[in-house]
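Entry 12.
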Amino acid sequence: LAMWMGLDSRSPWAAMSMLAQWGRPIHTELFEVILPSHASGGYTLAEGWVFPERLACHGLSQAYSKRWIEALGTARDCREPWEFSHPANQRYADMAASLQAVVISRVMDLARATHRRSKSSNLCVVGPLFEDDSLSHGLIEHGPYADVHLSGLRASEVGAIGAACLAWSDTEWP
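Predicted 3D structure (C-alpha cells):
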C-alpha cells in the first residue's frame, strides 16, 4: 500500500503511520477483506489483490490486480509533491488510517491468541510495526500481557536470541 501511495519504500510502515495521522479509518471494511484473520489469531494477505513477485520484473503497475485498482484506484506517482489539501491525498491518508486500524486489530488478535497458547505474562516484540505508537500503546494498555518489551534490536538479532532461548528451555538439564 505504501508503494501504491507513492511513499518511501525503505520504511513503508513508518511512512504509512505518519500519513495515517491525517486520515480517518473509513475504509476498514475493505482492508478486513484484503487482510483476513484466521481462527488461530493470525492474518494474511488475501489472494488475488497484490502480486509482489511481479513488482521486481514488471514494476508497480503490474503488482496490483484489477480487483485492487477497482477498489483503490491507480497508484500515485511518487514524484508528485504531497499537498494535503488535494482530495486525492486525503483519500490516501484515509486509506493509511484504515489499514493501520485493521493491522492493529489483527496484531492484537494475534497477541491474545499467543497469550492463550503460551500462558506467559511477558511479550517481547520487534520490527517496524511496533515503532507505531498506536500499536505499541494498544499492546501495552489493552493487550493480555503484564509486561511488554519493545526491543530496539533488529528482527534478525531478536530472532536469533529467541531461538537460542527456546532451544535452551527445551533442553533437559541434569
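Annotation: The chain has a mean pLDDT of 81. The CA atoms of residues 62 and 174 lie 58 Å apart.
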